[in-house]
């Protein structure tokens, strides 16, 4: 049975919010939508996380960081990697999107706008530095598989755009 | 059933492993920084996908073998990838043509695998398809740029398509494991993908002022473990660390 709901015990939320994505340190794994469930089972916290991309090298680190954060809070835990339902950029929270922008990464557009930008060279992505949409794609793949490389033609800064994944 | 499923998974995963290795070879050797990074990112996606498949295969085998053993410690004849994906990186046109000819197949294949009765395979397919869509965009883009580019780039891309075309038919050959898994509702009937494949490839080649070669002769063998001369060299690099330092781990 596939469900897109998250089941996270209220007590665990503040602990998990302290764990950040090792590649985007300003973003907590909660705002990234990577944690799908975290519940107590016989006094052990069972956590399920899902990778953003199959080859995401951050997943092992995230798993270890979760265990450490829970251990520091006095809980034993087990972390399981699940593939279904598959992660989508829709799960990035509004706070997460803001954190990305503040960090200098343009947040994902909707699926159609994303296509217009990546396939047809439309200028829709907002430069996280100066706010201009006079931006162009330099490469469909940026510093990691989940991002594309862009440049702003107004302030001339290069930046990453987080690609829409649906 | 168990053995068929195991072999079936390897049939899917080996394609991605070997293609991932080829794309990874471009690390530090891409024609430009952007393409270098793109190719290695694609390689990383493929390796990530492969891990999910081999982990599942290892679980099914249930004899203590790990995903690493399956990936690294087989002999050449035990790899069942198609010949297409093991072809070497020569010029960039060739590399992109090989990737494109596989991407079109890969996307059609995963779209069907999503409907598999096997929940794990369906979940992996659902995950992979999102990534492979980007791969196909990237390679199609290069087919267009080089095909509909200069005389030199057009000649090179057409030469690459002419060379690699002979390996495309094998994508649609059914193995014994395929047949068994199709009848269980787990596997994809690859023979049914052929028409959509040619249509998609033809559309993009036409847009790129390229043509499908007329040759009716096709190579086969990879799915049965009979590989081209390039495979041994590829494996010697892929397996180097495990062969030199047995059982090493990160």
From TrEMBL, chain A:
Residues 16-77 form the MIP18 family-like domain. Pfam families: FeS_assembly_P (PF01883), Zn_ribbon_PaaD (PF23451). It comes from the Bacteria. Residues 116-163 form the PaaD zinc beta ribbon domain. NCBIfam families: PA_CoA_Oxy4 (TIGR02159). PANTHER family: 1,2-PHENYLACETYL-COA EPOXIDASE, SUBUNIT D-RELATED, FE-S PROTEIN MATURATION AUXILIARY FACTOR YITW. This is Phenylacetate-CoA oxygenase subunit PaaJ. The gene is paaJ.
TrEMBL record, chain B:
It comes from Gelidibacter gilvus. One of its GO terms (biological process) is phenylacetate catabolic process. GO terms for cellular component: cytosol. This is Phenylacetate-CoA oxygenase subunit PaaI. Pfam families: PaaA_PaaC (PF05138). It comes from the Bacteria. InterPro entries: Aromatic_CoA_ox/epox, Ferritin-like, Ferritin-like_SF, PaaA_PaaC, PaaC. Gene3D superfamilies: 1.20.1260.10.
């Amino acid at each position: 049975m596939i469900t897109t709901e998250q089941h996270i015990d209220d007590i665990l939320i503040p602990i998990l919010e302290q764990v950040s994505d090792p590649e985007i340190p300003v973003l907590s794994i909660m705002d990234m939508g990577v944690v799908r469930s975290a519940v107590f089972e016989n006094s052990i916290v069972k956590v399920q996380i899902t990778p953003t991309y199959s080859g995401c090298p951050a997943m092992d680190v995230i798993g270890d960081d979760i265990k450490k954060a829970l251990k520091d809070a006095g809980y034993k835990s087990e972390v399981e990697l699940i593939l279904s339902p598959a992660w989508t950029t829709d799960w990035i929270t509004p706070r997460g999107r803001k954190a990305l922008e503040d960090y200098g990464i343009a947040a994902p557009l909707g699926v159609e706008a994303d296509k217009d930008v990546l396939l047809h060279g439309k200028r829709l992505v907002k430069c996280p530095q100066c706010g201009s949409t006079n931006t162009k794609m330099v490469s469909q793949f940026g510093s990691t598989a989940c991002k594309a490389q862009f440049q702003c033609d107004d302030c001339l800064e290069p930046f990453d755009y987080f690609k829409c994944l649906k | 059933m168990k053995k068929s499923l195991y072999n079936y998974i390897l049939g899917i995963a080996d394609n991605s492993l070997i293609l991932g290795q080829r794309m990874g070879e471009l690390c530090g050797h891409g024609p430009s920084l952007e393409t270098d990074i793109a190719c290695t990112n694609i390689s990383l996606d493929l390796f990530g996908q492969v891990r999910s498949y081999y982990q599942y295969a290892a679980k099914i085998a249930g004899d203590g073998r790990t995903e690493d053993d399956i990936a690294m410690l087989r002999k050449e004849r035990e790899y069942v990838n198609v010949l297409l994906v093991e072809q070497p990186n020569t010029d960039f046109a060739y590399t992109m043509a090989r990737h494109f000819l596989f991407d079109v197949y890969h996307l059609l294949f995963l779209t069907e695998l999503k409907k598999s009765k096997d929940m794990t395979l369906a979940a992996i397919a659902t995950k992979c398809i999102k990534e492979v869509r980007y791969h196909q965009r990237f390679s199609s883009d290069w087919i267009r740029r080089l095909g509909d580019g200069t005389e030199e780039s057009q000649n090179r891309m057409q030469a690459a398509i002419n060379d690699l075309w002979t390996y495309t038919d094998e994508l649609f050959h059914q193995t014994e494991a395929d047949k068994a898994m199709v009848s269980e509702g787990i596997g994809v009937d690859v023979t049914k993908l052929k028409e959509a494949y040619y249509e998609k490839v033809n559309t993009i080649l036409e847009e790129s002022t390229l043509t499908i070669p007329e040759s009716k002769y096709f190579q086969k063998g990879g799915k049965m473990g009979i590989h081209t001369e390039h495979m041994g060299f590829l494996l010697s690099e892929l397996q180097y660390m495990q062969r030199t330092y047995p059982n090493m781990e990160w």
